[in-house]
Give the backbone structure.
Amino acid sequence: MILTLALGLPMLGAAVLAGSSRWDARQARWLAAGVASLSLLLLVIAWIGFDPAGPRFQHVDELRWVPSLGVAWRVGVDGIALTVATMSALLFVATIVYPPDSRGEPRQDLVQYYAWLLFLQSVSLGVFLALDLLLFYVFFDLSLVGMFFLIGRWGHGQPQIAALKFFLYTFAGSLLLLLAIIGLYLSLDTPSFDMRVLIERQPLAGSGLYAGLVFLALMLGFAIKTPLVPLHTWLPQAHVDAPGPVSAILAGVLLKMGSYGMIRLPLAMMPETFARYAPVVAIVALVAIVYGALVALGQGNLKRRIAYTSINHMGYTVLGIAVAAAFADNVAARQLALTGATVEMVAHGLITGALFLICGSFWQRTGDYDFGHYGGLARQAPLLTGFSVLAMFASLGMPALAGFVAEFQIFAGTFAIYPWLAVLGVVGILITAALFLDMLRRLFFGRLPAHLGEFPDLGRSEWGVLTVLALAIVVIGVAPQFLLAPIEAAASALVGGR
Amino acid sequence: MLWSIPLLPLLLAPLLYWRRRRAGRTALAAGAALILLIDLVLAGLALAGLGRLGGWSDGAFSVYRWSDTLVLTLGRSTASDVFMVMVPLVALPIALFATWHDVALRDDRRTADAAGSRLLALLVAFVGAMQLLVLANDLLTLLIAWELVGACSWALISHKWGEAAVGRDAAQAFLVTRSGDLGLYIAAAAVFAGTGGFGYADLAALDGPLLQVAVAGIVLAAAAKSAQLPFSAWLFAAMSGPVPVSALLHAATMVAVGLYLLVRLEPTLSTVTWFMPTVIGIGLVTALAAGVVGTFQGHAKKLLAASTSAQYGLMWVAVGAGFPGVALLHFIAHAFMKAGLFLSAGLAEHQSGSYRLDGMRLGRCLPGVAATTLILSLALAGMIPLGAAWTKEQIVSAAGVHGTWLALLAALAGGLSALYATRFQRLAYGRGERRGKSRSSGAVRPSQAELGALRLLAAGTLGLSVLWWPAANRAVSDWLAMQRPPGHLWMLLVSLALVLLGIVAGIVMTRQGRPAEPVGWRRPVADWFGLPALTLSVAANVTRLSGVLARFDNDVVDAGLRGTARIGQRLARLNATRGEALSEGVPGGFSYLAERGGHWARRAQSGQAHHYYAAIAAGLVIVLAILMIGVQP
C-alpha cells in the first residue's frame, strides 16, 4: 500500500489545488510542499523496510483492472527503482520549496504551478514504481503532459516553442516505445503486461529479427528521453526556456526515465538481444560523453552549459548500462558498472538539480544567463558561491562527493569489459573539470561589474533547499553504503541472473 | 585508528573558518598550530607503534567498507611514515608565517578577515588530505586523496580571486595535474580488471599487459603532480597563490605526492622493464632543463618553482635507479629548505613590492633574514656540510650505479642548482649599493612570527647536517631499511667541483649592474622553453574545437530536427490541398462512373429485336470462346 500512497497523495494534492479557487500562492506552496514531503517520507519508510537480501521486488501492490488484457494496477520496487524514486521525491520537495521564477512580479497562477508540479511528481514516481508495462507507458506519457504545461506557461524566452519541441520530440520517442511494448506483450503465450512475468519468461530470447526490432524501438524511445547524441537537441532549448526549478525536475527526474527504462525493459526483459548490441550502445554512449562535454564547453550561456553537461553525465549512465549488458564473463565488473550507472542517476539528479536551482536564482536576480556579464560575485554573494562551488565540483567528479562514487565504478567496470572505451571516456571528466572551473571563474572571480552592485545573496528558502541537497551529495560521497546495498542487490539480480 | 590522522585536520579545518568572527591572529594561529601539533602527535604515536595495543594501526580499524568491492583501507609503510611526520612538521611554521604574512585584519583591527581565515582553514585541510594520501593502502583511497589534494591547491591558488589572472592560473594548475590523474583512474581500473580489487597488494599480484597499463597510469599521474616534463608548466601558473601556499605545495604536499607514489609502489613498479629507464630519463631531463630555466629566471618565485621541478627530477632519478630511500631523504632535506626559501621570498616581496629579482638586494636592510636565507640557499646549492648536500651526493652515486655518465649528468644538474641558488641569494639578499635604496616606502619590518617560522625551517636544514656523520647516516638508513648506493671519492670530488663552479658562475652572473631579467634568447628559455605557452595553446585549441562543435550542434544536428518538422509541415500542407483533392476525387469519380454505367445500361433496353439478337449472338461467341480456352489444355 505504501507505494500506491506515495504516488497517489501528490495526485490527490494536485486535484485539491486545481479544484478550488480559494487558494492563494503561499498556501498552495505550503500545501504542495507538505504533500510532496509526505510522499518522500513514505518512500523513505519503504527504503527502511526494504531488505536487500529479500525478494527482487518488494512492497508490491496488485489490483485487478482489465484482466482480459492482462492489465492491472501493479506497483513494486527493486533497489534501483527505490533509490531513483526516492531521489526524485526529494528533488520534487526541493523544487516546490524553492522560489519559482517570477522575476519579482506577483503572479496569480502560481496555484496551478504547484498543482502541475504535484501532478508531475505523481506520474514521475509512477514511472519508477510501476510493475505493469501499460501503466509504465501511461505514466511515461503523462509526464510529458505535466512538463509541457510547466515549461509553456511558466517559462521565459520562447517557452511555448520550447515546450512544443520538447513534447513532440519526446512523444515521437514514446510512440516507438508503445510499439515495442505491444511487441513484447504479443510475444507472450498468454499475453500480460506484468513486468515480472516478462522478466521471468524472457519471451524474446533467441527470436532474431523480431527481437532486434523490438529492441531498436525500445532503445530509440529511451535514447530520446535520456537523451543520447544525436537525439538530444530538444534538451538545451527546453532547459533554457524553462523556469529554474522546472529545469531541475527535467534534468533530475525526467531524463532518468530514459536510463531507468533501459534498465527495466531491455536489460531485464531481453538481455540476450541487448548483449548483441551492447558494443554499439556503448560507443554511442561514449560519443555522448565526449561530445556532450565538448559542446558544453563551447556554450556561453549558463543554463545551456549545464544542460549539455547532463548529456555528458547521462552518457556515463548509459555506458554503465551497456557494459552491464555486455556478453562477458566478468560478472563482477558488469555489476560494478550497473551499480555505478544507478548511482550516477541518483547523483546526477541531486547535483544537476542543485545546479539548475542555482540557475533559477541567477535568473530571478538578473534575468540573464550569459556568464560573460557576470564576475566577482564571490564577495557579494558568498553563500551562492559556496553552493555553486560544491555543486560544480560534485559534477566534475570530485571525490568525497556523490558524482565520484558513480563515475569511478562506471570507469572501473567499463575498463574490464571495453578497455578502450574507458580510456577514451575518462577524458570526459577532464573536459567537465575545465568547463566548470571556467564557469566558476567567470561567475564568481575577478572584478565585480557595476550593474551587479545590488546583487542579493541567497534567501532563506534558497539556501535551506540547497543545504539539504548539498548534504545529500556529501553523504553519498562519503558514506554511500546505504545507497549501494539496495542497488547492488538489484544489479546482481540483473547481471548475474541470466 | 589510523583514520584519526587524516580526519582530524579535515574535520577541524572548517571550525577555523567558522570561528573567525571572534578570532584574532593569535587565536587563529593557535588554533591551526594546535590542530597540526595534535596531528603530529598522532602520527608520532602511530610511528612509535604505541597504539598497536589498542588496535591503533594495521588492525581492522583501518578498513572502511563502502561495499564488497569498494573498500577504503589505510596502512603504513616506510614512505608513509616519513611523509606522515614531515607534512604537519613543515606545515606548522608555514601556518604561523601565513597568519602574520597573509591574514589581513578587519576594520576593527582585531579579528581576522574572511579570506585570511579561509586560507588557514584550507592549509589545515590540505594537510588532512595529504595524510589520507600517504596512508592510503589501495588505489581507490589514493585516488580520493589525490583529487582532494588537487582541489585544495586549486582553492589555495585562487586565494586572491579578485585578480583577473588568478582564476585562470588556478584552473590551469588543476587541469594540468588532473590530466595526469586520469592515469590513476585507468591504473585503478586495470587493477580491478585483473584482480577484482583495488588494493596495493592486488596491484602487486597483477601481471602481463594490465600491469603495464597500471604502471603507465601511475607514472603519468606522478609526473603531472611532480611537475616533471612535459607537465612542468603548471608550477609557474601556481605561483599566483600566496607565498605560504607555494611553500606548502612545493615542500611537502602537491608536488611531493608524485614522488611519494613512486617511492611507495617502487617494488611493484620496478618489475616492469621500461620503468627504470623512463623514470631516470624523465627525472634527469627535467632536472637539467629546469636547472637552465632557474639559471635565467628573473622572478623570485618562478626561479624557486623551476628549482622544485629540478630537485624532484633528481629524486626521480634516485627512484628510477632503484634507491627510493635516497629519494626520501632528499625529500626531507628539500622540504625544509624549499619551504624556507619560499617564505624568505615572501619577506623580500613585502619589502621590495614585487617578486622581480631585479629590484631586491635586501642584504643591508634585512641582514638577519639574509643570513638565515644563506643557510637555505647553500643547502639548495648542495654545499657541504649541509644535509641536502649529502642526500644529493647519494643521488649522484645512485645514478652512478647505472653508468658513470648518468652520475655526471646528475652532478651537472647539481651544479646548475648551485648556480641558481647563488643567483637567488645574491639578487634577493645581496648587499645593495646604498642602504635603503631598494626598500619601498612604507614596508613594514617582518614580524617575529614570520622570522621565527623562517628560522625554524633553517634550523631543520642545519640540523640535517648530521647526515654527514657516518654513525648518523647509518642509523637513518637502518631506520628507513634503505639500500645505500656505493659511493666513489672521485665522483664526490667532481660533484663538489661542479657545485663550486656553479657558485662562481652565479656570482659572476649577479655582479652589480648586470640585469637579472632575462633578455633576448634567454627570455623563452627562462619561461620554461615556452612550455606554458604550449600548454595554453592546447587549452585554447580545445576551447576552439568546443566552439566549433557547439555551432555544429546548433546548426547541423538540430537542423535534422527542424528539417523533420518542416517536412511534416509541408506534408500536411500537401495533404490539405492535393491530398484532400484526391480523397474527394476518388469517391467522386466512382459515383460518376456508376452514373455513366447506369445511363449506358438504360440505353441497351431499346425494344428492337435485332439489337437483342445481335447481343445474344455476341454472348454466345464469348461463351464458346471461354469454353474453348477451358478445353484446350
In short: The beta strands of chain B are 63-65, 71-73.
